[in-house]
Amino acid sequence: MNRSASEIINTLPALLFCLDSRHQITSFRGSPFIHGHPQPTTLPCTLFDLWPKTAATEITKTITRIEENQPPRQFRYSVNSTNQQYHFKAYISKQADSFAIIVLDASTEFNQEDEKQHLYDQLRQNQKMEALGQLTGGIAHDFNNLLASILGYADLTLDALEAMGKEVLANYLREVINSGEKARDLITQMQAFARAKPNTAITLVPTLLLKSATSLLQAALPETIQLSINSEEGVSPIKIDPAQFNQVVVNLCLNARDAIGEAGNIDIALSSHRHLLECSSCHTRFDGEYVEVSISDNGRGIDPTLITRIFDPFFTTKEFNNNSGMGLSVVHGIVHEHQGHLVVQSQPNYGTTIRLFFPAISEQTSPQQSRTTLPARQHSSNATLLVIDDEESCARLQGELLRNKGFTVEIFSDALQALERYRLNPQRFDLILVDQNMPGISGIEVAQAVRTLRPEILIILNTNHTEHDYNAQAKAAGINALLSKPIHPEQLLTTILDLLQAPK
To answer: How far is C-alpha 150 from the chain's CA centre?
Structure first.
């Protein structure tokens, strides 16, 4: 059956408005496919009776341009209706002294463009974070070399003051060393954030992880926001990448800071119990022994209607220029990558609690070694060491430390000159201590070169906490040990003696 043109028009997903020469709406044809757009109840009516003011003004300007034979003849606008926002695009045509306005639903286009903008903003943010990470890693590397010299020479001076019985001065210097060690720990965390790739998950005591993560927060929180940390005794260890743990805790605390505003409280609690809960992001019920890290704030909370969306990529409840933390979709990824779960509890105007659950590990790990003096050990004073480090202060420091322990030491800040010296008499040296990051040639390349002349030579490689994992390369190059800067004198001496005194 043939249908008339009018019947066909009635089935189109469009609204049709006809205007007279005075720009008044004289007729209207609706559509069941268009939702949220105002429709006239009486005719005739003006544009401002029907459209939002901004849209009506734009229509009036467009009609004026059409009357003057100027483009454009279409535009887009949005309408707020029943707590929702609807998007439309309008086409205007002129017939004699009258005008026709055809309105189409443009929600899909708006959403696609909005998502595209989100992706573009995320890309820009990722690029900025990558650049910041590279800058942070470079600064941390240089600062680490400075700290190595400061702490090393401070330890040498402390030994001398203790030998002379000058306890008051020794106590002053111990405070200097303590501050230097805090700076060292902070630099280690900066380098962890600068890594491009995460480390392999390792078993660690979460109390130490939490202390490390929160040490980064002090500078980021205003004095009006109080941070409290409570940890149960005997919390089980967990298996996790320390850098990613730090990222999650720090960024959730920054999110809490932004939700609080000017003044409030952030409470972090650590415990280990058996739990039977449902994950807020993957909706899986989990049961078993878990270590819980909960982060609570007394900020504005999250609207209940948004709870189901907070794990969506790019979703945020923050204003445009107040987006300093990472999205919960990233938190979800990190937590679940470590076989964990999370539960979100929030109430508007009362605050939010995010509970992270990581599987508890039954085996106990030994606590981190403190920087205490190790027992004196006997060693051969006729051992000759070759020290190579492009940072002259680090090379001189290591030389001084080892000479004080009775070793014969030759130091070089130029790796190529050191190789020439080694080639003249490879049998002279018992051990080589070489830095990895040097201009022109790396420490691993130096190791490969000296191995070709004397395969049994002992080699220690000094590295910084960077994005690179040198273990596989070092093993392939025959390197006997890796040390991370800044190196404590006792750690350096212990490693050297272990290698020299090991059975051949």
So the answer is: 29
Of the ranges 84-88, 322-326, 350-354, 460-464, which one carries the lowest mean pLDDT score? Answer: 322-326
Q: How far apart are CA 489 and CA 240, in angstroms?
A: 29
Residue range 201-363 forms a domain whose CATH class is alpha beta
Which pLDDT score, from 0 to 100, does residue 140 have? 72
C-alpha 220/C-alpha 218 separation (Å) is 6
Lowest mean pLDDT among 106-115, 149-158, 262-271, 370-379: 370-379
Its sign, for the CA torsion 438, 195, 208, 205, is: negative
CB 274 within 8 A of CB 286: no
Percentage of the chain exceeding pLDDT 70: 83
Largest CA distance in the chain: 113
* Strand pairing report for 14-19 and 25-29: antiparallel
Which one-letter amino acid corresponds to residue 368? Q
Residue 250 · residue 216 · CB < 8 Å: yes
Query: What residues are paired with 102 via a beta bridge?
Result: 16, 91
- Give the C-alpha distances (Å, rounded to integers) separating 384 from 136, 292, 447: 37, 52, 17
Residue pLDDT, tens place only, 476-493? 888 999 888 777 788 888
Tokens coding 481: 């040990």
Q: Cα–Cα distance between 410 and 376 in angstroms, integer?
A: 24
14 vs 412, more confident:
412
Query: What does the alpha-carbon distance between residue 169 and residue 175 come to, in Å, rounded to a whole number?
Result: 10
- Tracing tokens 């005739």 back to the chain, one arrives at 44
pLDDT at 52: 82
DSSP label at residue 425 = -
Note whether 479 and 460 are within 8 A (CB). Answer: yes
Contacts 24+ apart (CB under 8 A), 474-478: 474/444, 474/447, 477/444, 477/447, 477/448, 477/451, 478/447, 478/448, 478/451
Query: Are 253 and 227 in contact, with CB atoms under 8 Å apart?
Result: yes
Query: Which of 331, 321, 314, 185 minimizes the C-alpha distance to 253?
Result: 331
Q: Give the DSSP H or E segment for 239.
A: strand 238-240
Which CATH fold would you assign to the domain 14-105? Answer: Beta-Lactamase (3.30.450)
Across the range 364-391, mean pLDDT stands at 61
CATH class of this structure's domain 384-501: alpha beta
Q: How many CA atoms lie within 13 A of 374 on its CB side?
A: 14
How far is the C-alpha of 168 from the C-alpha of 158, rounded, in Å?
11
Q: Report the sign of the C-alpha dihedral through residues 368, 374, 379, 382, in that order.
A: positive
Q: End-to-end CA distance of the chain, in Å?
A: 100
Q: What are phi and psi of 85, to 5 degrees?
A: -110, 125
SS3 call for 204: strand
Q: Shortest CA distance to 51 belongs to which of 11, 101, 6, 9?
A: 101
**Tokens (6 digits) for 299:** 């900020």
Distance CA 84, CA 251 (A): 31
Query: pTM for the full model?
Result: 0.48
- Please report the pLDDT score of residue 424 as a whole number: 94
